[in-house]
TrEMBL record:
UniProt superkingdom: Bacteria
Organism: Zavarzinia aquatilis
GO CC entries: cytosolic large ribosomal subunit
Function: The globular domain of the protein is located near the polypeptide exit tunnel on the outside of the subunit, while an extended beta-hairpin is found that lines the wall of the exit tunnel in the center of the 70S ribosome. This protein binds specifically to 23S rRNA; its binding is stimulated by other ribosomal proteins, e.g., L4, L17, and L20. It is important during the early stages of 50S assembly. It makes multiple contacts with different domains of the 23S rRNA in the assembled 50S subunit and ribosome.
Any single GO BP term: translation
Keyword Cell cycle assigned: no
Gene Ontology MF terms: rRNA binding; structural constituent of ribosome
A Pfam match: Ribosomal_L22
Family stated for the protein in its record: Belongs to the universal ribosomal protein uL22 family.
Protein name: Large ribosomal subunit protein uL22
Length: 128
């Protein structure tokens, strides 16, 4: 007797990928995530490739992973994929200190973030 299979977190026409511990604050990562929400996958990849934000490279890797999951694990059509969700959350925070005058210290918080990208197959492509 084995454990029951975990239910899927997303629908049958969706695939997801998660990027953990990305070295950026959630506010900065969310600016990049806003650029790709609701767009076609090809458009989103082009926007991330030419973005000036440093974290856009990591978001592009996560999006490419979601596309690969959709193609290989769920047999979805890559040409009809859309970024359904791009969710950003907090991860750990490294706490450091910076020496200041008169023996004082000032705190430095180096934040990390998580991102979850869900791609969905367009409805009209499913009907055909």
């Amino acid at each position: 007797m084995s454990k029951p299979k975990n239910p899927r977190r997303v629908a049958e026409n969706e695939a997801l990928a998660i990027g953990n511990n990305l070295r950026s604050s959630t506010r900065k990562l969310n600016l990049v995530a806003e650029q790709i929400r609701g767009k076609a996958v090809s458009t989103a990849l082009a926007e991330l490739a030419f973005s000036k934000k440093h974290i856009a490279r990591d978001v592009k890797k996560v999006l490419e992973s979601a596309i690969a999951n959709a193609e290989n694990n769920h047999q979805l059509d890559v040409d009809s994929l859309v970024v359904a969700q791009a969710t950003v959350g907090r991860s750990l925070a490294m706490r450091r200190f910076h020496a200041r005058a008169r023996g004082r210290a000032a705190g430095i918080v180096k934040e990390f973030s998580n991102i979850t990208v869900v791609v969905r197959e367009r409805a009209e492509a499913v009907e055909e």
